[in-house]
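ok so i was messing around last nite and threw this chain in just to see what happens. nothing serious, just curious
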Amino acid sequence: MSAIDTQAIYPVRGGAVRRQLRARRLTLFLLIMLGIGLEISYLALYPWLAGRSAQVDPLRQAWEGFLPLSSMLYKRLDWFSYISTFSWPGFFYGYLYPLLLLLGLLLFVLWLAVVVGNRAGNVILLRSSLYLRPVFGTLLFLTTILTITMVIAPIHSNELIRSMLQSGLYGKMVETYHLNPYTAPNALVAHDALQSLLAQLAKSPSGTSSTVGPVWMDISILISLVAHGEPVRVILSWRMLALIAHLLNVGLLWSLASAQKPIQRISTTLFYAWNPLVLILGVAYAHPEIVFITLLLLSLLSLQRGAILLGWVFALLASLICLPGLVLLPLIFVYAIRRAWSPGCGWFLLSLLGIISITALVVLLAYVPYWQGWGVSGMLAGIRAVFWQESAVNSLNAAVLSMPVHLPANLYQWVVPNKWSEAALIIMGLYVFIAIWFLNTFEALLQWSGGLLLLWIVLQPVCWPWYLILPLVVIGCSTNRKEILLMILLLIGALISYYFWQWSHVWEGQALVTIGVPCLIWGWALFFYSTWQMVHGDWRGGGQAIDEDSRPQKLRRPPWFSRPNWSSRPLRNRN
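result:
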């Protein structure tokens, strides 16, 4: 008997497999080309990361002395002399004008990468674990290259490095001077090199020790032990920690998106892994949010897989790294309790008792090393400093306070930062109260948590561009297009805010451009989309528009190559 030609019997199988292989090869090629383009663009950012006043900047001189080859690299990449012949308006502050073009180019290439990921996800559907493995390996390798580029990037004294220096000083106060950083003033270590560099920066409301979580303080002690308290080694240690956390986040996000959004897993991971906001402010300047995301992703993965107590532990640890993460705990608690209620009343009581016991144990172990001289009043003061803020920076509140036309006295007292904070807390409290009724699924948890984080960023009196890294990950895993649109607009505003902070003086009304305009565009976009949907939408039964995503899909027969072959089918009884 002659051999059976399976391609002739099942021609669709060979065509589908060849199509998937072609899509994989094309995706790999495009990702490599886009990764090379992003690498060149990030290298082109080096002159601005180094600062133009490098000759008188002791921090950059120490960095170049610690990495001798970096000085030669920075000079070769300083392409400002080639474009200095062009005359640009004074509004762009001289040498800073190409920075906007570079940031725009980075966002454009990132958008192309997301489009490539979406296209690949729509084509490579079957046997995806086999065909997407090389794609993920290539993505992770290119992400490692881009992250290392930010680790060895130049640095100079500006407001954005405060977090690394301040955290290093806190660890050194415990490790070297045996002081409690929550109670000891920085004046006691005025002779320290880290404090000398911090003294050159302007005072900031976000640099107080009470707003730093105890778990982040423990990490600072480890960094101080590794770096021996030297400023350059402290910065390099923080960047190495951010590199490890970023690569872990890429793997965790891929795993989370594979179960939540399997078709968009490539684009979702790319949007985080190659994002300029994450690489510049999360890795090059190593803010706590990058480690917070690691624990938050571990919490979400645990909750997604039904490990309620483990997910709650990771959520607690994340909030004790970055205290603004406390706003997510009510939503995670409600979701965990509802998941525990499904098996029965007995399991619900055991889960509730376990959550309460674990919370008490984790909080006790986290705060007990710093309890002496601080106590409950210090804990409450730290939480109050986060949620009842006394100053306004980069926010809509700061823009209102800095308007050229001053408000009347009876209105001005209602827009001061502490009153503004109270109003923001009331609005977020109502949001959480409404969200409690809809937290029935994991997707709902992602959507409502992302919306709460966006609400926090928009309403708080103190807003920094790296705050957007938190909702960027949570919303990226959800399927709510409205939140994704607002997040993208705020991402553009955050990068513009990073540009504004390169100026010689701070523009207090920048939130009108970085927050106000994105929210305005988002509102009008929703209005026009709703209007178009009402006019051109599909109307069925009673005049109600039906969303395309909500229509029941027709049942289709599986393709030929997914059916069992003849040899695997049960044989008929011929007797």
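not much to say yet. The two ends are 24 Å apart (CA to CA).
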